[in-house]
Amino acid sequence: MTEEKVVVVASTNQGKIDEFRQMLEPEGYTVKSLKDLPHPIEIDETGKTFEENAVLKAMSVTKVFGIPAIADDSGLEIDAFGKAPGVYSARYLGHDTPYETKNRIILERMQGVTERTCRYVCAIAWTRPGEEPAVFADTVECVIAQEPAGHNGFGYDPIVYYEPLKKTMAEFLPEEKNAISHRGKALRKLEAWLHETGRDM
């Protein structure tokens, strides 16, 4: 009987947890979230970059529970907004503001704007007791759509349009999105490094 391989993802964002499960469970991992830990912990995302916040989140789990962890910090950079919302993507226009409202407001502010380039950015940190954190980042270049489309994905996905395949991120099936997404690319970098160095999640 093989030993269960558990990955703790330092997040309560169900959309992110679902994507990690879609990508890691076929590799034989069981994905756990902050909600599965013995007691809740507070994590202050005080970093100025995606990389800093990812390390803060993963290290919080590793320090409190003495276990390995991974954490994702990701967001949307809109060039016409000076790369905002960036690291504040989850808190943009208020943390409790529904994404349907956030997406509507962004589209209203983008009316008449011809420079619609944007990108999703993701940094994934890996931490383990007694070792230095490792961080892997990647992006996917997109544009802001003219109107929302699709019901898959989460967050800003309905208004983030991937021109090569002529779909918003919310129109992709999960496996299609994970193949080209910022999160999928960053995770594959982490997996390659783990394989090269003989480490586990």
Secondary structure: helix percent: 25-40%
Which stretches are poorly predicted, pLDDT < 50 over at least 5 residues? none
Within the largest sheet, what's the order of strands? 4-3-5-6-7-8
Mean pLDDT: 95
CATH architecture: Alpha-Beta Complex
Instruction: Note the main sheet.
Output: 6 strands, antiparallel
Write a concise keyword list for the protein shown above.
201 residues; alpha+beta; six-stranded antiparallel sheet; globular
Descriptive account of the structure:
This protein has 201 residues and is an alpha+beta fold. It has a single domain (5-197), classed as Alpha-Beta Complex (Maf protein), CATH 3.90.950. The protein has five helices and eight strands, in the order βαβαββαββββαα. It has a six-stranded antiparallel β-sheet with strand order 4-3-5-6-7-8. The model has no long low-confidence stretch (mean pLDDT 95).
